[in-house]
Specification:
By secondary structure, the protein is an alpha+beta fold. The chain is built from 4 helices and 10 strands. It has helices at 3-12, 16-20, 121-136, 141-162, and strands at 32-38, 41-49, 51-56, 59-63, 70-74, 77-82, 88-93, 96-101, 105-110, 113-115. The chain has a 5-stranded mixed β-sheet, with no helix packed on it. Helix 3 (121-136) packs antiparallel against helix 4 (141-162).
Length: 164
């Protein structure tokens, strides 16, 4: 049997486990089991929440119970956690990954995170101006690139503080 015919015949046979699974829409009625961790600290460990909003690289997204499993890279931005009392907690994260697992489990691994209300808009504005000055200056290429990354994070933080 040629390799092409073998491949096409096996691709037509769908395992019964796939046939029995049905995907529906995500729903706010269920709970989502959240773990939000940094390399040195766990902010949430298997906490039941209603919704988590993240700043994914592909755009902002909300995650509810029964969300389709996925892996999303995170850009600098806000992770918002909404609990069963509709109370919202927001953290600014620098980068990381969000993994939506089957069974209403969400794991978010981030490099750095801090409560959004711990930032001063004035300090962010000042640090952003300094980073932009270094990025446009005549330092080494490495210094300019590092300053550009720093400026990108400060711009995202400034945006997050403006929409608080």
């Amino acid at each position: 049997m040629s390799a092409l015919r073998l491949l096409s015949s096996t691709s037509r046979r769908v395992p019964s486990a796939f046939l029995q699974q049905k995907r529906g829409y995500a729903e706010a009625a269920g709970k989502l089991n959240l773990s939000l961790v940094l390399p040195h600290q766990a902010i949430f460990t298997s906490a039941d929440v209603v919704q988590v909003n993240i700043s994914a690289a592909t755009g902002d997204m909300g995650i509810l119970a029964n969300h389709v499993p996925s892996i999303e890279p995170l850009r600098p931005g806000v992770v918002e956690v909404i609990d069963s009392n509709n109370a919202s907690k927001k953290w600014f994260v620098s980068s990381g990954f969000a993994n939506v697992h089957p069974g209403n489990k969400l794991t978010i691994n981030v490099v750095e995170a801090a409560p959004l209300d711990s930032f001063s808009p004035e300090a962010v504005r000042s640090n952003l101006q300094e980073a932009l000055k270094v990025a446009a200056g005549n330092g080494t290429e490495e210094e300019r690139l590092e300053a550009r990354i720093e400026a990108d994070v400060y711009e995202a933080l400034q945006h997050a503080l403006g929409s608080k």
